[in-house]
Amino acid sequence: MKGKRKGNPRPIKPSLEDGSVEPTTLRIVGGSMRGRKLIFSGEQRTRPMKERVREAVFNLVGPGVKGTHAMDLFAGTGALGLEAVSRGAARATFVEQHFPTAALIRQNAAALGAEQQCEVRAANVFIWAQLEPPAADIPWVVFCSPPYAFYTERLDDMLSLIGGLKDLAPAGSSFVVEADRQFDMALLPDATAWDVREYPPATVAIFRK
Questions:
Q1: Strand-by-strand arrangement of the 174-180 sheet
Q2: Quick one: which H or E segment has residue 106?
Q3: Which architecture, in CATH terms, is 24-208?
Q4: For residue 8, what pLDDT band results from cuts at 50, 70 and 90?
Q5: pLDDT digit string, tens, across residues 32-66
Q6: In which element (H, E) is residue 19 found?
């Protein structure tokens, strides 16, 4: 009896240099670049904020993003900073330690025609904030969306990062901090001034200076 014919093996998806799967896409959800796609690696490390949450966050921040310096810390896909540029931010800084992921942010900025407004730093966020604090010439919109584990493994560093930037930020600045329910938002500096919203499994806190 003839054995069953073996089919052709399934094609292996192309991978990036770090072994991650074939890139997939996200969308800009508002502003001048609404609907434009962003490529990202599919790496779990990037954990992009869900589109519905991103839209809710920008609805809360509102027109205050226009003319600001957007800072996308632990940038991952860069979707938050690029969304801010789409909605009128004057410039954006992306800080992402993982080199291949930082390269994809640059690729997205170029594809959107926004490379002149975007600076991508392949750097450790904690060190960057200490050694290269951003200029306070215009208001900031700071997006802080780290790996959730940092709120337990590096809690003191996270609180120092957020508190330090909050103190340096010029008047009119906004902060958006994303965590999960394991982090007590009451630990944030000036905790009662934050607007805390639940978007399970994420919790988002917004502060306006």
A1: 118-121, 91-95, 69-73, 140-144, 174-180, 202-208, 195-199
A2: helix 99-111
A3: 3-Layer(aba) Sandwich (3.40)
A4: very low
A5: 999 999 987 766 666 778 888 999 999 999 888 99
A6: none
